C-alpha cells in the first residue's frame, strides 16, 4: 500500500489525467441527475405532498386532472362508499412576479388530505382569502413569503406559506378550492357555472375492494399515488431516459478507468515482475492498484461535485434542476464501485506476470 501511495506522488501528472476524466464524467452525471430530479419531482409533487391513498377521477379523464370533473352529486355518491377527505382542482394561468417577470403558473386548489401535509414556513390560506402557498422552487424566481403574484387579467395573490417538493410544473402555487375557483372564473368567466366541481377527490384508504366498488358505482376511475404519477404526461419516460443516460455515463467511466489501469499494468510489467520475484504476492500488488483506483475515483468525484454545484449556482431560474443530497450520494457510491470494477481489468494481467521475466527469462 505504501508503494501505491509513493507511486501516486511520483506520477502525479499521470493520475491527474484519470482524475480529470472521472471528474468530467461525475460532473455530467450530477448535472443530468439534477435535471432529472427537477423534471420528475417538479411535476409529481402535487400527488406526493399530501396524505392521500387513492384519487378518484371521472371515468373519461385518463387519470388526467385537466380532463376530469366531479360535481357535488358525484362526490356525495363516492362518499357513501368511502370517506372523501380532500379534493383537487388545477388551472394553468399566466402571472407576473413582483419584479415583473412572467410565470406560467400551475395554480392548485386543494382541501383536506390533498393539501401539502407540511407547510415549512407560514400558513395555509383561509377559505376565500386571496393568498397562496408556493412550492419552494418559486424562490428561484424571486418569489417568497410576503410577495404578491399578479394573475394576468385576474387578482393579486399574497404568498403566505411555503411548501417543499409540492410542484406540478415548475411554477406552482396552492390555495383553497374557493380561491382557486374564484380566480379562474375572473380569468375565464365562462367557467362560472362550474362552482362546486372539482377535478379529483382524495381518499385516505388504498383498499382494493373500496377502489373496485367506486369504479363500479358510477363513471369514476380510481388510482393510487403511483398510478396517478405514472399517468402524468412523460414524467416516467423522462425519468427513465435520464437514468439510462446516467447509467451509460458510468459504463463509460468503468471502461475509461479499466483501460487506464490496464495500460499502467502493461507499462509496469517488468517492475511488477521484479516485485513478485522478491516475494510480493499478486493480491498485494492488486491491492495497490485498487487503492490507486479508489483514490482516483474519490478525487474525481470531489472535483466533479464542486464543478457541478458551481454550475448549479449560475443556472437560469427557469432551468428545472434540483441538486439533491441523496442523488449526490448515489453518484458517489456508483463512482467508487465503477472505479473498483474498472481496476479489476488489471487483475488477470497481474496474475499472468511471470517473475522469471525480471531475471531475463522468456516472456
What topology emerges from the helices and strands here?
Blueprint: H1 2-10, H2 12-48, E1 54-58, H3 72-79, E2 86-96, E3 102-112, E4 121-122, E5 131-135, E6 148-151, E7 156-163, E8 172-175, H4 177-187, E9 200-203, H5 208-217, E10 220-224, H6 225-230, H7 235-267, H8 269-277, H9 282-314, H10 325-343, H11 347-352
Helix pairs in contact: 1-9, 2-7, 2-9, 2-10, 7-10, 9-10
Describe this structure in words.
It is a single chain. The chain is an alpha+beta fold. The chain has two domains: 2-42 and 235-359, no CATH class; 54-205, no CATH class. The chain has helices at 2-10, 12-48, 72-79, 177-187, 208-217, 225-230, 235-267, 269-277, 282-314, 325-343, 347-352; strands at 54-58, 86-96, 102-112, 121-122, 131-135, 148-151, 156-163, 172-175, 200-203, 220-224. It has a six-stranded mixed β-barrel with strand order 2-3-8-5-7-6. Strand 2 and strand 3 (102-112) form a beta hairpin. Helix 2 (12-48) packs antiparallel against helix 10 (325-343), helix 7 runs parallel beside helix 10 and helix 9 (282-314) packs antiparallel against helix 10. It is elongated. The chain starts with a helix and ends in an 11-residue tail after the last helix. The model has no long low-confidence stretch (mean pLDDT 84).
Amino acid at each position: 500500500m505504501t508503494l501505491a501511495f509513493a507511486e501516486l506522488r511520483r506520477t502525479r501528472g499521470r493520475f491527474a489525467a484519470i482524475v480529470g476524466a472521472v471528474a468530467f464524467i461525475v460532473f455530467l452525471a450530477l448535472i443530468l441527475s439534477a435535471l432529472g430530479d427537477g423534471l420528475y419531482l417538479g411535476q409529481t409533487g402535487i400527488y406526493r405532498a399530501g396524505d392521500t391513498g387513492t384519487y378518484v377521477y371521472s371515468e373519461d379523464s385518463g387519470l388526467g386532472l385537466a380532463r376530469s370533473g366531479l360535481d357535488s352529486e358525484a362526490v356525495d355518491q363516492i362518499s357513501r362508499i368511502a370517506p372523501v377527505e380532500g379534493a383537487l382542482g388545477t388551472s394553468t394561468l399566466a402571472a407576473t412576479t413582483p419584479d415583473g417577470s412572467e410565470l406560467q403558473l400551475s395554480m392548485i386548489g386543494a382541501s383536506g388530505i390533498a393539501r401539502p401535509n407540511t407547510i415549512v414556513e407560514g400558513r395555509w390560506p383561509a377559505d376565500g382569502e386571496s393568498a397562496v402557498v408556493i412550492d419552494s422552487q418559486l424562490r428561484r424566481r424571486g418569489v417568497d413569503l410576503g410577495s404578491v403574484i399578479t394573475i394576468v387579467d385576474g387578482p393579486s395573490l399574497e404568498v403566505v406559506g411555503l411548501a417543499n417538493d409540492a410542484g406540478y410544473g415548475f411554477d406552482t402555487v396552492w390555495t383553497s378550492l374557493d380561491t382557486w375557483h374564484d380566480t379562474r372564473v375572473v380569468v375565464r368567466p365562462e367557467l362560472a357555472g362550474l362552482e362546486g366541481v372539482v377535478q379529483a377527490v382524495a381518499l385516505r384508504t388504498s383498499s382494493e375492494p373500496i377502489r373496485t366498488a367506486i369504479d363500479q358505482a358510477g363513471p369514476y376511475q380510481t388510482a393510487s399515488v403511483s398510478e396517478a404519477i405514472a399517468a402524468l404526461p412523460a414524467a416516467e419516460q423522462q425519468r427513465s431516459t435520464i437514468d439510462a443516460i446516467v447509467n451509460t455515463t458510468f459504463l463509460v467511466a468503468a471502461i475509461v478507468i479499466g483501460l487506464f489501469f490496464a495500460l499502467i499494468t502493461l507499462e509496469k510489467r517488468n517492475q511488477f515482475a521484479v516485485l513478485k520475484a522478491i516475494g510480493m504476492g499478486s493480491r498485494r500488488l492488486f491491492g495497490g492498484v485498487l487503492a490507486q483506483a479508489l483514490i482516483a475515483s474519490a478525487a474525481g468525484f470531489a472535483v466533479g461535485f464542486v464543478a457541478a454545484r458551481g454550475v448549479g449556482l449560475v443556472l437560469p431560474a427557469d432551468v428545472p434542476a434540483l441538486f439533491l443530497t441523496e442523488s449526490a450520494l448515489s453518484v458517489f457510491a456508483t463512482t467508487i464501485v465503477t472505479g473498483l470494477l474498472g481496476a479489476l481489468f488489471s487483475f488477470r494481467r497481474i496474475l499472468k506476470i511471470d517473475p522469471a521475466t525480471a531475471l531475463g527469462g522468456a516472456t
